[in-house]
Amino acid sequence: MAVVRDGTAARQPEALRVVVIGALGVVYGDIGTSPLYAFGACFSDTTGLAPTPAHVLGVLSLIFWALIVVVSIKYALFVLRADFHGEGGILALATLVASAGRGKASLRPLLTSLGIFGAALLYGDGMITPAMSVLSAMEGLGVASPQLAFAVVPLTIVILVALFVVQRRGTGAVGRFFGPVMLVWFVIIACLGVRAILTAPECLAAVNPMHGVRLLLSVPWTGFLVLGAVFLVVTGAEAMYADLGHFGARPIRIAWYCLVLPCLLINYFGQGALVLHTPAAVDNSFYRLAPSWGMYPLIALAAAATVIASQAIISGAFSLTHQALELGYVPRLEVRHYSSQGEGRVYIPFVNWVLLAAAVGLVLGFRTAENLAGAYGVAVSATMVITTALCLVCFRSVWGWSLPAALALSAAFLSVDVVFLGANLAKIFQGGWFPILVAASAYLLMTTWHRGRVLLAEKLEQHRMPIEEFIAQRWTPDSSRVPGTAAYVTRLTFGTPLTLLRNYRHNKVLHAQVLLVTIQTEPVPRVAAAERVSVNELAPGLLRVVAHYGFMQTPNVAVLLDEVAAGGFAPDRDLTFFLSRETPVVTDAPGMSRWRKHVFAFLARNAHSVIAEYRVPEENVFEVGLYVRI
Questions:
Q1: 447-504: per-residue pLDDT in tens?
Q2: What DSSP string runs through 25-73?
Q3: Three-state SS at 573
Q4: N or C: which end of the chain has fewer CB within 10 A?
Q5: Residue 436 covered by a domain
Q6: Residues 335, 340, 343, 345, CA torsion sign
C-alpha cells in the first residue's frame, strides 16, 4: 500500500528559508516564550533559592546544559530521526515501534499503552500552556505600572477567550504572520540579553557545568526543587517532534541551531547578568531587561508571542485528537477542516471549549504565573520519559542498533529525564496534581472506548452471516428487488452487514445494486489516492468496496463513491446509505468491569454521528438502530 509523506519540507518547491520561518511560528512558540517565566521560577518562593552570584551562575549552567542535552542532542539529533512515514509525535512513535518487524508481539500492547498515556499527558499541557504563557506576558503590566496589576487576570481571560473563539474560523490566514512575529521576538529578546551581558560578562562563566554541579551539591534539596523550574526551559521540545510531519526535520533543526537556541541562551544569560548586577530584579527579570521606553511595546510583543505559543499547543491538541479518533481511541467527535487542501488542519469544537474552560479556570485558580509554574512541567516531563523508553525500542528494533549501544544512549537520556520528572513530581501539591488528573482521566476514557469497541464488535460478530450463505439464500434471480443503489457502510471486510440482514428481514426486498462499503484506518499517516480503493464483485450487482485511509486523513464516502465510479462502476443516482447505530446495553458479562461499561455506553450514546464522521450526504441516509448486550 502506498503512503504519502506530508509536510511542507517534503512538498517543496517552497524555499527552505520560508519553511524555516514558518517553523518558528508553529514549532518554537512554547519554548520560545519560556524566558518570560523560567529563570524567575528558579528563585521563586517554592524553591527558596537566594539570588547570590554562585546560585545565579549555577542556575544559568543548569539551563545551558538542559537546552544542550535535552533539546539540541536528544530531540534535534535523535528523536527527529524516528519519523513514521514522515509523521512525528508520541502516537506516531508508539505505532512505529509497535509495528516494528523485529519487535515482539507480546510487547505491542505495552508499547501502545505507553503511547496512549503519553498522548493523554499532552492534554494537560494543552490546558496549562495557554494560561501560563498569556498570564506571564500580561504580568509585565505590573512591572511597567504597579497601578495596572489589577488588570492582569481580567486581560488574560479576555485574550484567552478571544483566542479560543477565533479557532472556529481557522488559522490559515493568521498563520502566515506567526513565523515573522516569532522571528522579531527572538531577535528582540537576544538584543535585550546582549545589552545586559555587556554590563556583567562574568555570567558567561556559567557555560562550565561545574557551576551547576556545585549548586546541586551545596543545597541538595533546594537544588532538586530548582531542577523542576529549570525544566521549564525545555517544555516546548516535544513540539519539535509533534510537528515533524508539517515541516520536516531539516528546517526544524536549522531554525533551532541557527536562531532559536542562540537567542534563548543570550536572553537567559542576560537575565542572569542583570540579577548578578541587581539581585532585586529577580522578581521579574525578563521585563526588567527592557528600558523604560520599551516596556509597553515589549508587553505587546510578548502578548503576541504567547498567543502564537498557545495557538501551536491548541492546534496540536486538535491534531492529536484527530489521530486518536482515526486510530479508534476516541469517540466520534465533530471535526471541521480548515480547507480541502490541508487534511491535518482541523478544528474540533468539543476539544476547543474544554481547553478554554480549563485555561480560564487555571487563571482564576492560580492567579499568577509563579503559582501556575507548580502545575507546569509534570505532564511534559512524564511524556519525555515515555518518549525515551519508546526510543530505546526504536534504536534496537527499528534502526537495528546493538543492544549495548541502544541501552547506553537511552540510559544517558533517561537519567536526565527521570531526574527532571522527580523534580517536577515534588511540585505535586503545588498544582502538579492537575495535569496528572487530566492525563489519568483521558487515558481511562481512551482505553475504555477502545476496549468497549472490541467487546461490541465481538458481540456483533456472533450474529453475523457469512456473505456466501447470504448470496446462496437471498441473492437469487427470483428475490424481490427495488430500483436504485443501496450502500451499506460496515466496519468489517467479511460477512454480511447486520444492517443488510435487518433491512431484508423487515422489508423483504433488496435494491437492484448493493455496495458493502468498509472504511479502514491504516497505521500510517496517509494513503495515496491511487491505492485507496479496492472493489470486489461478490455477485452480479453486489460489490464489496474497501477504502483505506491514513490516521491523518478523514474519510469522505461521497468522494469515495466517485472514485469507485471512476473505476468502472456507476452507482444509480437514487442512492441510499444504510448506517447502523449500535446502542450498548450493560450486563454482567465478562470482558470489562461494569462501571467502565457504563462509561462506554455513555460515550457511545453521545458520540457524534457516523454520518458526519464519514461525510455521508444526510438527505440519503437510512439509519438502523441495533441494541447490543455487552
A1: 999 898 888 888 877 777 888 888 888 787 767 778 888 888 887 778 888 888 888 8
A2: HHTSHHHHTGGGTHHHHTTSTTT-----HHHHHHHHHHHHHHIIIIIII
A3: coil
A4: N
A5: no
A6: negative
User: Is residue 613 one of the residues assigned to a domain?
Assistant: yes
Q: Is the pTM of this model over 0.90?
A: no
Nearest to 524, CA basis, from 555, 551, 548:
551
> Do residues 282 and 415 share a domain?
yes
Number of domains, the chain: 2
Cα–Cα dist 333/548, whole Å? 20
Give domain status of residue 513, yes or no: yes
Output the nine-digit C-alpha cell for 310: 498557545
**What does the pLDDT look like over 229-274, one tens digit per residue?**
999 999 888 888 887 877 788 889 999 999 999 999 999 999 999 9
DSSP string, 511-548: EEEEEEEEEEEESSS-B-GGGSEEEEEEETTEEEEEEE
Beta strands 542-550 and 533-539, pairing class: antiparallel
Lookup result for grid cell 540510559: 411
The closest alpha carbon to 228, from 129, 65, 362, 374, belongs to: 374
**Residue pair 95/127 in contact by the 8 Å Cβ criterion:** no
Cα distance between residue 105 and residue 340, in whole Å: 38
Q: Is the bond preceding residue 291 a cis peptide, omega within 30 degrees?
A: no
